[in-house]
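ARCHIVE CARD
SHELF: 3
SLOT: left
DATA:
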Amino acid sequence: YFFLFFLTPAVTLQTSWRSYRERAKYKRIRHAVIVIQSGWRGMKARRKAKRRHEAAQLIRRFINGFIYRHEEYCAENDYFVDHVRYSFLKNLRKNLPKNVLDKNWPTPPTLLVEASEHLQRLHMRNMVIKYCRRVQPEWKKQMMQKVVASEIFKDQKDSYPYSVGRLFLDSRLEREQISLKVLQTLGSEKVQYGVSVIKYDRRGFKPRLRQLLLTNTFAVLVDRTKIKQRMDYAALRGISVSSHCDGMVVLHMPCEDNKQKGDAVLHCSHVIELVTKLAMMASKTNYVNISLGSIRFAVSRTKEGIIDFIRGSELKVAKGNRGHLLVTTPQISTT
């Protein structure tokens, strides 16, 4: 008991000391938490205030740039101008045309009209290059012929719209339809194109069935197994057709040359195809004349013939009362 009497106050004192240390530790932790919270809230407040200040400055710059948007590029409008450019280019990137036939293009702001035109041309050029690289040789040849036909006949000949959707064939004659004797007479010259035509005599306009064969350097009119007329491209003076829906074509040749038989008056069911190929082979696309009225041709050195065109219900070719060749062309409905 004696020892317990002296031990009890010591234990109580030790317990009190531990309680005091724990309370002091708790106070320090609490103080540290408060300091950390205070610092974190202060940092968040400063960040928020900074963002508000930057936002206010940005709005001021944007408004100021809008006010000076028509002025030269300067410190007052640089942000607004850059924003407009970036927004347009970003929108343009998402809405670029996908093929050469798509003509849609986002409307540019006033600041980028000139740049937009340059970009549109460059983009179209890139699409054309990519498209041309994918085009097969036979289609490329077809497209070249169609382009030439468009340059010659578009808005000038009534039958042209109906030929746009039709392919130009390499030849309208099979190999077996051309006489072997004619091929032997041509020698090394290969037939590039052949088509059946009706040739009208220069005197009397009697129709005669012929074959027109085109080579690289000349064209020949063939009657079965005999070459009736050879027309060198170098001597070709011109090609005349009418503006109506008919198949008449006149190949103008020099009358001074005794080897020539004068101009060739022909009728062909594929006149646009024939004239396009002939003009390209002869390199005389500028020599094609589309007449709105009559076509004059040389019968001889001193005599001239005339082809008159009138409207009618159906196509008809006959000799007129005045000695002219009268061609009746059907009226094309625009509906």
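SLOT: right
DATA:
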Amino acid sequence: WDETHFGKMGSYYINRTFFFDVHPPLGKMLIGLAGYLSGYDGTFPFQKPGDRYEQHNYVGMRGVRLCRLFCAFLGSCLVPFAYLTVLELSKSLPAALLTAFILIFDTGCITLSQYILLDPILMFFLMGAVLSMVKCNSCADRPFSASWWFWLSLTGVSLAGAMGVKFVGLFVVLLVGLNTIYDLWDLLGNLSLSLVVFGKHLLARVLCLIVLPLALYMAMFAVHFAVLNRSGPGDGFFSSAFQSQLIGNNLHNVSVPE
């Protein structure tokens, strides 16, 4: 059922048809982009589960046969993400390998990665945020180095991605936030650091873990509204002034008092 739901929204992006959904737009935009790049024209109706795709090019969106494509590719990335995270935390190769093999043979992970769903996209950004956070912590002995900035910025990008797919991504924001608070508290108690250096640490985290994710999150909605400029099933959720900007709407180009 969910594949029918989100596949239809991918088609809406390809056709630039406005719709409304409870989830933020990033996951559906990426699904639509994957379909567009793989040659899908957005004409499949996605009316009910089990409908045959016939001549429609679904491979790029669903990744059933080519696991390198989109959802299946993102799902396969969870294995190296988990391996690297556990290896960094435990410094144990057997533990990291065990974690990787558990995910490789996990039926749920394999199944979720086969279909047009938000779950593999969400898990990609969730685990990407955790891996980046762990890698950034490992660079604590060389703050403000290129690698430290890279992993800190990538953590912020991953946080924006997780929030931009589903609001449940806020849980990884909480995890990174608690880790950051602990890190800053530890730095504040280090008497060998001046307040100026501590201020630089605080500013770096504000920029990379608050400002950057919020800017990217808002940019997703800017793209969302710029792409969906045609009248569709989501018009009625918005004001008359907004509907007047949608091509094909009865109020299109009508002057609406504020």
